[in-house]
């Protein structure tokens, strides 16, 4: 009789305890493109990380090159030591599932990852699979406006071609800056992060220095000056 009572109590505890497994399994799995419909809700998002950036304060894993208008996974500096070294490299071009709450931060969609248990790699983007993204960029760029590098500060938030000569270049090892004026603190710069160096046939600072080019992308303001983030060579055309 005592054994039956004990077994019954044990069964009640098992059934009533809030085990994480069932909760996780009940979460809805969505594509990263749908994240905007689920702000404030905890979900599982699925997609390929096509761009990354580690600022030192946070690591951003982006599902779209236009990170300002699409979902990003964010690992804050306090949690970076929990993840594999250089998560910006580890997750780049990987297809992942990530679990968390979709939030809006400064009008940008993001999901904060505080533990590696929240993200699982389920595949990897091959070179063949990356070609459609480049083709889509080429199609979009065909209709974009071309401006001079001196005008870039008038086009914040807009996607354009910026034309000019790269007069100085600096590769810090973590990022390469292509500068269109010696006073790089004030004037337009094209920025290529180390996680994307492998896409270029040569080190970017050698490939584009002293060349007249067109740079395609969304102009953003960073520390009071205009810049475009370049994550693939298709964004830069060498004119001469």
Structural class: alpha+beta
Structural shape: globular
Question: How large, in whole angstroms, is the Cα Rg?
Answer: 22 Å
Question: Could you name the CATH class of the largest domain?
Answer: Mainly Beta
Q: CA-to-CA gap between the ends? A: 91 Å
CATH-assigned fold name of the largest domain: OB fold (Dihydrolipoamide Acetyltransferase, E2P)
In total, how many beta strands? 18
| Number of individual domains | 2
Overall mean confidence score, pLDDT = 84
Helical content, roughly?
Answer: 10-25%
Widest sheet, order of strands: 3-4-5-8-7
Q: Please report which band the strand proportion falls in: under 5%, 5-15%, 15-25%, 25-35%, 35-45% or over 45%.
A: 35-45%
Please describe the biggest sheet, giving its number of strands, its sense, and whether it closes into a barrel.
5 strands, mixed
Low-confidence stretches: 9-24, 127-132
- Helix-strand pattern, N to C? HHEEEEEHEEEEHEEEEEHEEEE
Tell me which CATH architecture of the largest domain applies here: Beta Barrel
Question: How many helical stretches?
Answer: 5
What's the CATH H-level superfamily name of the largest domain?
Nucleic acid-binding proteins
What does this structure look like?
This protein is an alpha+beta fold and 240 residues long. The protein folds into two domains: 22-127, Nucleic acid-binding proteins (OB fold (Dihydrolipoamide Acetyltransferase, E2P)); 144-238, OB fold (Dihydrolipoamide Acetyltransferase, E2P). The protein is 19% helix and 37% strand. It has five helices and 18 strands. The chain has helices spanning 2-16, 20-26, 87-90, 127-141, 204-208, and strands at residues 29-31, 42-48, 51-54, 58-62, 72-76, 94-101, 103-105, 108-112, 119-124, 146-148, 159-165, 168-171, 175-179, 189-193, 212-218, 220-222, 225-229, 236-238. The strands form four sheets. It has a five-stranded mixed beta sheet with strand order 3-4-5-8-7. It has a five-stranded mixed beta sheet with strand order 12-13-14-17-16. A four-stranded mixed beta sheet has the order 1-2-6-9, with no helix packed on it. The radius of gyration is 22 Å and the shape is globular. Residues 9-24 and 127-132 have low confidence and may be disordered.
